[in-house]
Write a structure and sequence with these properties.
- With about 475 residues, the chain is an alpha/beta fold.
- It has 2 domains: about 200 residues, NAD(P)-binding Rossmann-like Domain (Rossmann fold, 3-Layer(aba) Sandwich), CATH 3.40.50.720; about 240 residues, 3-Layer(aba) Sandwich (Rossmann fold), CATH 3.40.50.
- It contains 19 helices and 14 strands.
- Strand 1, helix 1 and strand 2 form a beta-alpha-beta unit.
- Bound molecules: nicotinamide-adenine-dinucleotide and uridine-5'-diphosphate-glucose (UPG).
- The site of nicotinamide-adenine-dinucleotide has 26 residues, from helix 5.
- One of its GO terms (biological process) is UDP-glucuronate biosynthetic process.
- Belongs to the UDP-glucose/GDP-mannose dehydrogenase family.
Length: about 475
Amino acid sequence: MVKICCIGAGYVGGPTMAVIALKCPSIEVVVVDISVNRINSWNSDQLPIYEPGLDDVVKECRGRNLFFSTDVEKHVYEADIIFVSVNTPTKTRGLGAGKAADLTYWESAAWMIADVSKSDKIVVEKSTVPVKTAEAIEKILNHNSKGIHFSILSNPEFLAEGTAIQDLLKPDRVLIGGRETPEGQKAVQALKEVYAHWVPEDRIIISNLWSAELAKLVANAFLAQRISSVNAVSALCEATGADVTEVAYSVGKDSRIGPKFLNASVGFGGSCFQKDILNLVYICESNGLAEVANYWKQVIKINDYQKNRFVNRVVSSMFNTVSGKKIAVLGFAFKKDTGDTRETPAIDVCKGLLGDNATISIYDPRVTEDQIQRDLAMNKFDWDHPIHLQSLSPTSVKKVRVTWDAYEAANGAHGVCILTEWDEFKQLDYQRIYDNMQKPAFIFDGRNVIDPEKLREIGFIVYSIGRPLNPWLKNLSAAS
Ligand SMILES: NC(=O)c1ccc[n+]([C@@H]2O[C@H](COP(=O)([O-])OP(=O)(O)OC[C@H]3O[C@@H](n4cnc5c(N)ncnc54)[C@H](O)[C@@H]3O)[C@@H](O)[C@H]2O)c1
Ligand SMILES: O=c1ccn([C@@H]2O[C@H](COP(=O)(O)OP(=O)(O)O[C@H]3O[C@H](CO)[C@@H](O)[C@H](O)[C@H]3O)[C@@H](O)[C@H]2O)c(=O)[nH]1
């Protein structure tokens, strides 16, 4: 029986290994992590992450050929193939701080693999890493005196949260990069055989190591670039009377462009886009490619601009101040169908509103109060550095209340901001919300989930990203 061990039981390691175990009953898969809490959750009925379809997959395989353990060294020692799926955050200090990837977690995993191994192994980069990382990892692993050989592969993960199980069951492609040596190609074939249990052969791409590492960063940069492009256009739509949903629809009908990832929003969030583009920018700069670096940097700048623009729109619409006013925030996760709040635009919007002295009442169907309070108290990039989080005091941010009901959040509010596109926000009784709000009642839709005309009929002053402005807001724009 082939044995797989995955180091890192997070958003990637957990679901990815669960699907491998589901599709390959003849392979034993053990997911290990240094976090006892995380492993305990994976072994309980309350999984540590919310992902549609994940519970069923774990229930079917756990205890059969899928295991979760904190005994990292034992399972690394026993494995034939080791996936490394640890976090690769943005550095917060030292050389490249604020841009470069912090490979501390990856490096310590590599040293541990080198220390405990007693037989040849395939080590797979599952985490997103800077191009050429495999070269450094090879040096750590193969500089041992035990005569053991390690083959390093790059197998970046392309799943998106909220659709992870579907993405894993039917991937657009699986990418495997390896050395062009006989050992390298043998390792590539071994990993390909694992995926071939359920992924059609023409969807498994084989490339060199550096192409695979770079393709992951570039894929995320392209996706994020589309969102920044449409968000930049949304500002122009508001200034001209065009409607960004109509513009995006027409543009996306061109088969060369395609319809996906053209939804204007309050800004993209999530643990990957910003981190990976900053990483790409740093790599370009390190290679003396300042113009290329600046090109990609602009994707982040537009995203920051879009989040600021939203906050400014809220404040300027509400008589230029939200001081002492109650703002209801509907949705805190970075997208629907996940409880993940890493780099969610809601953090920047809430901090912006708190900066103008608003009182905020937040509702999200999947995010706990504890998580929201922690997110609002921490510094940029700290979420991915457990060491910084330990020093965070548990005090809650004043002027923030978290509720488990959208109507309660909006009760007595002066304005409502929709920051996540949860389906349930389309079905809310907006008449009831309007009746219980202060007047004039404002609604700022950061995800274009509501019908602005219907809400205007109820009496709301409505702002939707990139869509024709309410006469009230138009007058304010003209005046400013
Ligand atoms: N989240 C996504 O949707 C996604 C998608 C594709 C790729 N990625 C990439 O995958 C990697 C992991 O992302 P994630 O979202 O799963 O992160 P995560 O923080 O959810 O999980 C990482 C886990 O690794 C564990 N860990 C860290 N160092 C360890 C060590 N030395 N030994 C054992 N366990 C260790 C941590 O405790 C944590 O549980 C990142 O590089 C990320 O960029 C993420
Ligand atoms: O048209 C769109 C599409 C997305 N978003 C936002 O963009 C962010 C990212 O969304 P999405 O890409 O769906 O989720 P992630 O889980 O961050 O997945 C991305 O990042 C992963 C980590 O690298 C990759 O594996 C995936 O392929 C890539 O889609 C979210 O805030 C979305 O709300 C928009 O604003 N408009």
